[in-house]
Specification:
homodimer; about 450 residues; alpha/beta; Rossmann fold; 2 domains; eight-stranded mixed β-sheet; 13 helices; elongated
């Protein structure tokens, strides 16, 4: 049975089904489609399915051309009816694994996806989880859901965990360019998953258990949270000392070993850095262990929008203005430059702070036309202004939150009364007296 | 006046005096001596001067051949009389900057060195500090000492800070291979220092102030403390979860961007990682700022010898033995492999813990013949045993603390009852039941 599937993988006749049509799912569909595999896409989100069927991209940083061509060639079937999953030889799951407000992992998406698979499970199917989650999830939480089918793992079906490692919006690291960490419940599970990713030309790294693979992904993201939070703490400290953290980092970066520069900002967003590490923190507590540095790093990250906010009040104050009644323009609301992704964006924390102080708040973002029905700030209903550099004098303060490539920093400073810069993009702009680094 | 010294530097006739004959001082002497400069070496430590004069190396990881040849050629004058410093055109200071037991910076060495220089200060001398210290030291603490001479900075004499960046015992990074972060009290100070290091073929990075250069060095070392402590916290956590941290790190390291592996151990030693970051923590408090993550990292580091100690008690316990009365052999007492450097070594914390529990303690280290008169453990008086692998069964437990290259890990495990491995050097050794990772 293992061999039959292995042969289908090698012959590229294995049908690959995907649950979750987010960035990861679509990237993988693109990669496996380009490699020649027939594809099935499934999502419970009716809106995404509709947009895909109408060939309307909802992610600005992913090229959909190839996927749409595959649809035309009837090699990529999209559905919101889970029964399509019965046709797949392989099912790859990449659904979101969020946290609730208490930083407790919410595995609802993941459990539902696995319950759906279980309902339709076919003999010899290979199930691959690519969502990030805490050590033990695949083995202890998800495997039992599939075993409800009555099928036996490693014999009747196969379950692997292959953490997704990606740099969103960075074309340098395609799916194939990133080595795949591969683990399975049994050796057969791992072998099958390995043979699949090898077909993409990926390097593979075998783990002895799915828990090790889950932990490896959490360690990667935790490393980033630790270091970004640390440099943000240093930003605040060096500011107290009258030193420019950016100049300190530049000098320190000359060290040719044992150093990796991280850069401060208004707080981290997306899923990998602000969310994933807290799957480890949560699991730590359940095992009687500790992750104090991660908790501290999360705390520092939480503080960053407030730090930016206070720097702005101080900047206005030195111009004899209050935030109350001030016109404030936020430039960039996405968590990362040049992507249309708002997940955990510091903007969603900063905007309510400004509103609560009775500022008149405006924003501009070329990738986000309106902010409304945001779960984090239910009262928010704003539309992106049209950016006219010469009109910036209308605002009492401009906050640079996201360093989108399209912005002209010189012009922004030239026409503004006060610029709060969280990204050091105005480093080479003259007129320092107008600029507050935050 | 600047030009006169510049010309001497270019002509390599400038006499370079050094205060502090430790690793940094000797490395720099070697580099500048090889470049052709006449040298003077001064240290208040009479023992070091005597050993050098007798051509007896006291650091095993530094090749002294070149330095001794320079002595023979009368191009390297050594003295413990500070009056020799009057002959120097340039004086480079690399004295230790330790902490007291309350983690308060102790600038005594540094102040004394500068008071000595001040006493002998000559017109047009260039003074270069290469010791690590908190932001503001050069400008606020040391400059005033030199100004006592009545000379004027940037006119009559010059003061620069060039933090020392080095990987002790790693021949890959010679003095010339590491870019130099260069700062001066005035532009002339920085220009002179830059021209000097350029003569070694060093890349140079200019900083706008000595405080920036000081902070850059502290950031480099703090980054390492943060990350080593974090991975040690993860080691403990993953152990709770039944996962091998080393396998997790190996898998995580396959990520081709945004990740840098750090490895756990029994605690960090030397000066750069356990000492230098606390110069920043101390200064943070004085400025009303915070360095919470660094303090937490220091706390985790402090715990590591106790963690190893407890793992050993547990290992003995499972063999139905108590530590009380057990014969324990510690392999390696230096803080880093293949160097004879004991500074802040975790061994100096672990050995007293073992003794206090009435263990019979032995150690072996090819680079440390005896442990006595150690400031941290005044009661300690041990001599390195002769290592005979076949005799290891005499000990109830063997702790691998330093992974010196000379050790044969297979033999160590083969002949021991219990091996506590803090360095994962037994990863590929069979007989896992004898091994406790710690």
């Amino acid at each position: 049975m293992v061999n039959a599937l292995k042969e289908k993988i090698a012959a590229k006749t294995a049908i690959i089904g995907f649950i979750g049509m987010g960035y990861i799912g679509l990237s993988l569909l693109d990669a496996f489609g380009s490699a020649g595999y027939p594809l099935i896409g499934y999502d419970i989100d009716q809106k995404k399915i509709e947009l895909l069927k109408k060939k309307k991209p909802y992610l600005n940083f992913l090229d959909h051309k190839n996927l749409f061509a595959l649809m035309d060639q009837k090699r990529f079937k999209i559905s919101n009816d889970s029964v399509v999953l019965q046709e797949a030889d392989i099912i790859i799951i990449s659904v979101a694994t969020p946290l609730d407000r208490y930083r407790t992992p919410n595995l609802t998406n993941l459990r539902n996806a696995f319950l759906t698979i279980s309902k339709h499970l076919q003999k010899n199917q290979l199930i691959i989880l690519q969502s990030s989650t805490f050590p033990g999830t695949t083995n202890e939480e998800l495997l039992p859901l599939l075993e409800k089918s009555g099928f036996k793992i490693g014999k009747d079906f196969f379950l692997a965990h292959v953490p997704e490692v990606t740099d969103i919006g960075n074309p340098e690291f395609s799916v194939a360019a990133v080595p795949k960490i591969i683990s399975g419940i049994t050796t057969a599970c791992r072998t099958l998953a390995t043979s699949l990713y090898k077909q993409l030309g990926c390097k593979t790294v075998a783990c002895s258990s799915t828990s090790i693979a889950e932990a490896a992904k959490l360690l990667q993201n935790s490393f980033r949270l630790i270091n970004i939070s640390f440099i943000n703490e240093m930003k605040i400290l060096f500011d107290h000392m009258g030193l420019d953290v950016w100049e300190v980092i530049e000098a320190a970066s000359s060290k040719p070993f044992g150093f990796m520069p991280f850069y401060p900002g208004p707080g981290v967003g997306g899923s990998c850095i602000p969310i994933v590490p807290f799957y480890l923190v949560w699991k730590a507590k359940a095992t009687g262990g500790q992750a104090v540095m991660l908790e501290q790093a999360g705390h520092i990250n939480d503080l960053m929008p407030t730090y930016v906010f206070n720097k702005m009040i101080q900047g206005l104050n030195l111009q004899s203005k209050t935030l109350n009644g001030a016109k404030v323009l936020v430039l960039g609301v996405t968590y990362k430059k040049d992507v249309n992704d708002l997940r955990e964006s510091p903007a969603l924390k900063l905007l309510p702070l400004l509103k609560n102080m009775n500022a008149e708040v405006f924003y501009h973002d070329p990738y986000v036309k309106e902010l409304s029905q945001i779960e984090e700030c239910p009262g928010l209903a704003l539309k992106s202004i049209e950016l006219n550099y010469e009109m910036l004098a209308l605002y009492d303060a401009v906050i640079i939150l996201t360093d989108h490539t399209c912005y002209d920093w010189d012009k922004i400073v030239l026409h503004s009364h006060l610029v709060v810069d969280t990204r050091n993009v105005t480093a080479n702009v003259k007129a320092k007296s107008k600029i507050v680094k935050a």
